[in-house]
């Protein structure tokens, strides 16, 4: 990997005329040279996407990458659920089941969850705050291009590489198993490659976080103050702060684990090493949950009021609750360790903070519900996913409060109850908010409108599938079914089969989504109205729709040709402005 990075740096040094580079903000020359800025059009085709530093293009790359990872992780879990339809092993081996379990968790959290948020934030944060681009466009591009090799490393064990098998450590990588102690298959290089991939994804997230903080602090339009900064930008700013404190710790822990595995150090292979790993991992791991859920909360807080016909109720309290979650999230990590035998006084303090962090989440929930109260509700597809988000988040949150109680947690720890609770948040809430954003902003990044009926089918199949699958898991947990098992006792068969049916319903819903998304992008009805959702009727138009309207107007005055504008990196950016026809209202 080091050789690869050096080769990339050497190539960049060869092809880039660094002395003539002039940022747009400089307005002149660098180093006293007399060379003037010369505008050139973006390259087209593959070269454009490989070399772009435009925030909108990079947002699209993040989105494509995240959806591919979502498909891979989803197919992994479908195979697992089919296997679990029968109590005994019938389809795949136990070791391959463990490999799918490990890769599914890491894929969904690190290769889908964080990048899909980066897709929205890269595309829309500069538009929402009136910036020309991100503060550091090239760092923004580098942060994305670290992710494809990270995915290849994480999935390397599934490729036909001699003597390399997939990691089977589960996504938490608990030691001493992941340290390769003993004669098991965890000494295999597949675990090392997975750890390196995780490290790369963490570096990418950290670079992006620095960029978002710098952008929101320094690139805002003069009219955008802290008082009127939009709620999505607030959540991205808070998320970026969490990333800066959490991901470097994960990187350090992974480096220590790699040293244990390859150079015989003894960080985690001695007495207390397993507890040390859990402390280091969960100090990252629980803030990671809020790193993933805060921006989706911001999407819902932005989108839901648009179809409730009124502004977000208690805007300041939603902002304060976001900041409170960011602070409290670093004080709850040991609630994952109640069963490890740590000091009861420490357990009590972590229980108190774990219960307290539910309060700002409840504040948000009541604000969303109050925003809809007596509003002019329009059940568009984005609104349906927002309502589904709130519903699933309530179930996931309430089940989490039970786990924050030490006596209850000791009973339910490492059962399917934990799996059901967690997936109500990551699938029922985070993914639903992502779908809400994809449908809501679909006209902006495609210039077209999706098929309304298929969008609603996608919602209802996802809603039914989610609740069938994960509520069955909660009931399995109450029955005492341990998680991570490929086989189980016959009395759990019925609930496992219900969960498998729910997973297949979810699969059908996502197939409809993929078809609708791709077909509408290529052949959907073009929009000519800069306000396809009729937000102006309730004075709820936001900055990105104003930008979209200007883009359409420019395309009309240019006779439908592409609009050309300067990019902040001193190069030339060309926005694709579609020729516009009929608009479709998702009502």
UniProtKB/TrEMBL annotation:
<keyword id="KW-0349">Heme</keyword>
<dbReference type="InterPro" id="IPR000883">
    <property type="entry name" value="Cyt_C_Oxase_1"/>
</dbReference>
<feature type="transmembrane region" description="Helical">
    <location>
        <begin position="193"/>
        <end position="217"/>
    </location>
</feature>
<feature type="transmembrane region" description="Helical">
    <location>
        <begin position="237"/>
        <end position="259"/>
    </location>
</feature>
<feature type="compositionally biased region" description="Acidic residues">
    <location>
        <begin position="575"/>
        <end position="587"/>
    </location>
</feature>
<dbReference type="GO" id="GO:0009060">
    <property type="term" value="P:aerobic respiration"/>
</dbReference>
<feature type="transmembrane region" description="Helical">
    <location>
        <begin position="382"/>
        <end position="404"/>
    </location>
</feature>
<feature type="domain" description="Cytochrome oxidase subunit I profile">
    <location>
        <begin position="49"/>
        <end position="533"/>
    </location>
</feature>
<feature type="transmembrane region" description="Helical">
    <location>
        <begin position="457"/>
        <end position="478"/>
    </location>
</feature>
<dbReference type="GO" id="GO:0022904">
    <property type="term" value="P:respiratory electron transport chain"/>
</dbReference>
<keyword id="KW-0249">Electron transport</keyword>
<feature type="transmembrane region" description="Helical">
    <location>
        <begin position="141"/>
        <end position="161"/>
    </location>
</feature>
<feature type="transmembrane region" description="Helical">
    <location>
        <begin position="290"/>
        <end position="308"/>
    </location>
</feature>
<keyword id="KW-0472">Membrane</keyword>
<feature type="region of interest" description="Disordered">
    <location>
        <begin position="555"/>
        <end position="587"/>
    </location>
</feature>
<feature type="transmembrane region" description="Helical">
    <location>
        <begin position="62"/>
        <end position="84"/>
    </location>
</feature>
<feature type="transmembrane region" description="Helical">
    <location>
        <begin position="317"/>
        <end position="338"/>
    </location>
</feature>
<dbReference type="Pfam" id="PF00115">
    <property type="entry name" value="COX1"/>
</dbReference>
<dbReference type="GO" id="GO:0020037">
    <property type="term" value="F:heme binding"/>
</dbReference>
<keyword id="KW-1133">Transmembrane helix</keyword>
<keyword id="KW-0408">Iron</keyword>
<dbReference type="InterPro" id="IPR023615">
    <property type="entry name" value="Cyt_c_Oxase_su1_BS"/>
</dbReference>
<keyword id="KW-0679">Respiratory chain</keyword>
<dbReference type="InterPro" id="IPR036927">
    <property type="entry name" value="Cyt_c_oxase-like_su1_sf"/>
</dbReference>
<dbReference type="InterPro" id="IPR023616">
    <property type="entry name" value="Cyt_c_oxase-like_su1_dom"/>
</dbReference>
<keyword id="KW-0813">Transport</keyword>
<dbReference type="GO" id="GO:0016020">
    <property type="term" value="C:membrane"/>
</dbReference>
<protein>
    <submittedName>
        <fullName>Cox-type terminal oxidase subunit I</fullName>
    </submittedName>
</protein>
<keyword id="KW-0479">Metal-binding</keyword>
<keyword id="KW-0812">Transmembrane</keyword>
<feature type="transmembrane region" description="Helical">
    <location>
        <begin position="105"/>
        <end position="129"/>
    </location>
</feature>
<feature type="transmembrane region" description="Helical">
    <location>
        <begin position="498"/>
        <end position="518"/>
    </location>
</feature>
<dbReference type="GO" id="GO:0004129">
    <property type="term" value="F:cytochrome-c oxidase activity"/>
</dbReference>
<feature type="transmembrane region" description="Helical">
    <location>
        <begin position="424"/>
        <end position="445"/>
    </location>
</feature>
<feature type="transmembrane region" description="Helical">
    <location>
        <begin position="350"/>
        <end position="370"/>
    </location>
</feature>
<dbReference type="GO" id="GO:0015990">
    <property type="term" value="P:electron transport coupled proton transport"/>
</dbReference>
<comment type="similarity">
    <text>Belongs to the heme-copper respiratory oxidase family.</text>
</comment>
């Amino acid at each position: 990997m080091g050789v690869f990075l050096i080769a990339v740096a050497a190539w960049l040094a060869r092809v880039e005329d660094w002395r003539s580079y002039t940022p747009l903000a400089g307005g002149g020359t660098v180093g006293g040279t007399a060379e003037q800025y010369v505008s050139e059009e973006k390259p087209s085709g593959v070269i454009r996407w490989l070399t772009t530093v435009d925030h909108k293009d990079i947002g699209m790359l993040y989105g494509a990458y995240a959806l591919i990872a979502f498909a891979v992780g989803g197919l992994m879990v479908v195979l697992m659920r089919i296997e679990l339809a029968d109590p005994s092993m019938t389809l795949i081996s136990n070791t391959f089941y463990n490999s799918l379990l490990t890769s599914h968790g890491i894929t969904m959290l690190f290769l889908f969850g964080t990048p899909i948020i980066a897709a929205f934030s890269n595309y829309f944060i500069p538009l929402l705050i009136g910036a020309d681009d991100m503060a550091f466009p090239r760092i923004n591009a580098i942060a994305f291009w670290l992710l494809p090799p990270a995915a290849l490393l994480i999935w390397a064990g599934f490729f036909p590489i001699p003597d390399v098998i997939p990691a089977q450590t589960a996504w938490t990588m608990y030691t001493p198993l992941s340290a390769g102690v003993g004669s098991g298959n965890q000494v295999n290089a597949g675990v090392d490659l997975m750890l390196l991939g995780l490290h790369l994804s963490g570096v990418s997230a950290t670079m992006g976080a620095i960029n978002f903080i710098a952008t929101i602090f320094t690139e805002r339009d003069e009219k955008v103050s802290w008082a009127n900064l939009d709620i999505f930008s607030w959540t991205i700013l808070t998320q970026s702060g969490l990333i800066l404190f959490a991901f470097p710790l994960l990187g350090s822990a992974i480096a220590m684990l790699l040293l244990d595995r390859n150079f015989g150090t003894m960080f985690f292979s001695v007495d207390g090493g397993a507890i040390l790993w859990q402390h280091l991992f969960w100090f990252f791991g629980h803030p990671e949950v809020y790193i993933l859920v805060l921006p989706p909360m911001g999407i819902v807080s932005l989108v839901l009021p648009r179809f409730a016909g009124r502004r977000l109720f208690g805007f300041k309290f939603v902002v304060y609750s976001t900041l409170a979650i960011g602070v409290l999230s670093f004080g709850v990590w040991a609630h994952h360790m109640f069963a490890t035998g740590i000091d009861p006084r420490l357990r009590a303090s972590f229980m108190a903070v774990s219960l307290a962090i539910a309060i700002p989440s409840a504040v948000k929930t009541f604000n969303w519900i109050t925003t809809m109260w007596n509003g002019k509700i329009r059940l568009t597809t984005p609104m349906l996913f927002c309502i589904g988000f709130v519903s699933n988040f309530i179930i996931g949150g309430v089940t989490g409060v039970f786990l924050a109680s030490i006596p209850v947690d000791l009973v339910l720890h490492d059962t399917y109850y934990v799996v059901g609770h967690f997936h109500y948040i990551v699938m029922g809430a985070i993914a639903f908010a992502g779908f809400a954003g994809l449908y809501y902003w679909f006209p902006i990044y495609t210039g077209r409108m999706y098929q309304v009926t298929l969008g609603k089918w996608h919602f209802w199949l996802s809603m039914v599938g989610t609740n069938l699958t994960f509520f069955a898991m909660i009931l399995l947990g109450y029955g005492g079914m341990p998680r991570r098992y490929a086989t189980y006792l016959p009395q759990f068969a019925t609930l496992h089969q219900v969960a498998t049916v729910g997973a297949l319903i979810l699969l059908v819903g996502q197939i409809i989504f993929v078809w609708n998304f791709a077909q509408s992008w290529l052949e959907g009805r073009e929009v000519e109205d800069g306000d396809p959702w009729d937000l102006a009727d309730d004075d709820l138009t936001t900055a990105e729709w104003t930008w979209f309207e200007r883009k359409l107007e420019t395309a009309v005055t240019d006779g439908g040709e592409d609009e050309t504008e300067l990019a902040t990196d001193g190069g030339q950016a060309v926005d694709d402005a579609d020729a516009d026809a009929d608009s479709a209202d998702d009502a």
